[in-house]
Structure formats: C-alpha cells, structure tokens
Amino acid sequence: MKIRRYRWSDLDTVLALHQVCLAEVGLFPGDGVYYDDDFPLIHRIYIAAGGDFLVGELDRRVVAMGGLKPVDEGVAELCRLRVHPEFQRRGLGSAMLLALESRAVELGFHSVRGDTTLNQHAALTLYERSGWREIERRQVGELVVIYGEKRLRAPVPS
C-alpha cells in the first residue's frame, strides 16, 4: 500500500470509505457517535491546523485513511482510521496506524488519543496490539465509546 497525504480530489472517495466502514459495524447517522461534517474541511481541521490526513492506495484506489488533529500542546487526536472492508485483515490498518504515529512524531506530538466503539472489534484489537491503553469508557446512546491513548517515542538517531 502506498501512503500519501490527502488531496482535495480525494474528498468523495474518503467520505464514501468512511460511510462504508461505519455501516459495516452498524454505525449510522443519528446514533450519537457518527458524524461526517469534518470531511469538507479536512485541509482546515487536520492539515492547516498542524496535523495531517493520510490515505492509503492500492492500484490507485484509496482503500485506507486516517487523520491527525491537534488537540493540545504535544497531543493529537487520531481520527478517521478506516480500511475498506474488502481490504481488511491484510495488515493495512496496522500500516496506516504506524504511518500516522510516525507522522505525529515528525510533527512534534508526544502522544496520540482516539476513540472507537465497543462493537468495532478489529479497531480495539489493533489499538491494543499497537500499545494503546484505554483511558475511559462512556455510554453514548446505545453505544459504548472507548477512549484510548498512546505515548509516542521519537525515533532514535542512527
């Protein structure tokens, strides 16, 4: 998978990817956690704010994505980590998460935070395997939202 920065021309594709991925795990508009109003503002909310938004391509098709949104001094929120259902269970989520964490270090963040729901089993497993720790759980409507974080390490100079 080739990972690159988001471009304006990716908007429709990443929005569709978001919708397909959430529908796969039973999330939908109006459930209290689903939202998509940030997509038309990716450049402003993520990139121009000091974070980033990455997409992963296979055969010129966007099949994965994820964003880093600055939330505090040295802390970024990891958002929109998605892998198209047809391409899941191939290590693409791990690759995208690693790329986002590496990019966060490059941007000067010392930790990342994020959330997922209890019914997103693959995401929970991915975060756990990647060294994230749960910091809170909240009931939101019918859903349980899991909040996690990871302290990042700067690369060791060679």
Description:
- This protein is α+β, with helices and mostly antiparallel strands.
- 28% of the residues lie in helices and 35% in strands.
- It is built from four helices and seven strands, in the order E-H-H-E-E-E-H-E-H-E-E.
- It has helices at residues 11-24, 42-47, 92-106, 121-129, and strands at residues 2-5, 52-58, 61-72, 75-83, 111-117, 133-140, 143-151.
- The model has no long low-confidence stretch (mean pLDDT 91).
What is shown here, in short?
The chain is an alpha+beta fold and 158 residues long. Helix content is 28%, strand content 35%.
How do the helices and strands follow one another from N- to C-terminus?
A: EHHEEEHEHEE
Q: Give a count of the beta strands, DSSP E runs of length 2 or more.
A: 7
The unreliable regions are none
The helix/strand class is: alpha+beta
Number of helices: 4
Beta-strand percentage? 35-45%
Residues in helix, %: 25-40%
Shape: globular
Q: What do the pLDDT scores average to? A: 91
Q: Major beta sheet, specifics? A: 7 strands, mixed
Query: Which assembly state applies to the chains in this document?
Result: single chain
> Order of strands across the biggest sheet?
1-2-3-4-5-7-6
What is the CA-CA span between the terminal residues? 26 Å
CA-atom Rg in angstroms: 15 Å
